[in-house]
Write the C-alpha cells for this entry.
Amino acid sequence: MPPEPKNSTLILPKTSRHIIGRTILHLDEVDSTNSLLLRDEALLRQDGFVIYADRQTSGRGRMNRAWSGGSHGNKHLFCSIVIHPRPFLSHIPSITIILGLAVYRALRPLGVRDHAIKWPNDILVSGRKLCGILCEAKGLDGMDVVVAGIGVNIEGGMAQFPPALRHKAATLEMATGNRIEREHLLDIILNNIDKILAEAEEGTAPLFREWEISADLEGKTVTCNHKGRLITGVARGIDESGGLLIDVDGAGSVKVISGEITLTDYR
Ligand code: BTN
C-alpha cells in the first residue's frame, strides 16, 4: 500500500485560467505526485487538476530513475497535472514537447537566460539540468489521460544534491541570483501551460518551430539509443508527433520517439 499523503490543502480555483490549475491541491508529503494522481481515478477525471508537494519520498524521473530534486523539502517544485486528450495533440510525445516549451517560456520572466530545452523536455541552464518533466498515461473511460509531472530545482546551491549530480544540476537561485517563491513559479508555469494548450488548438506547427529554436538542436551531433542500439547523427528537428529526426550516415533520416540524447557539441 502506498503511504497516505500528509496534510493536504485545497487551493481555491483560479478563474483566470481556462482549464489548467483551476483546482490545486497542496500536500506536505507524498510518495510521488505523479503516482498519487495515477492511482486516484476521481482526480484523473478532472482535466487540469494540479497537485504539488513539499516533499516526495519516492519521486520518479524518466527512464525509471529516481528524482530527488535536492534533499530538503519545501525548496523545490514537485507538481503534477492531469491532462485529458485533445484532438490536436493526439500523441503523448507531442504533449511532452508542448509542455517543455511552456516551462521554457515560463522561466524567461523570472530572469533565466541561456536556457535551452533538451529533447524531449529537460530544461538546461548553461548545460545543467534545472527542470525535468515526466509524462505518463493511464487509460480511463476509454481515453488516455496524461499525468505530467514537473520538477524544478528552486533554491540553494550544489551541496544539497547527491555527489553524482553536483556537476549536472542547476537551481533557479544559481541561474538568476534570486530566491524565487515556489508558488509564484507554479503560478507562472500553470498560466503558460493553460495558454499554450489554447494556442495549440489553433495549430501546433508554430509551437513545434518555437520548440526547435528554443532547443537550439538543429545541425547538432547527437547520440541516442534507437531500437536497442546506439546511433549517432545530425539532429534535424522534430516532427508533428514530437519524434526527433536525426540524419544518420548510411541510414538516412531516423525518427526517435522516446529515450534520451547525448549532445556532442551542445552549449
Ligand atoms: C526527469 O527529468 O527524469 C523527469 C523528472 C520529473 C520529476 C517530477 S517531480 C514531480 C513529479 N512527481 C514525480 O515523481 N516525478 C515528477
Q: What stands out?
A: The first strand starts at residue 6 and ends at 11. Residues 217-262 form a domain with the SH3 type barrels. fold (CATH 2.30.30.100). The pocket of biotin is lined by residues 32-34, 56, 59-62, 65, 67, 78-80, 122, 132-134, 149-151 (CB under 6 Å). The two ends are 44 Å apart (CA to CA).
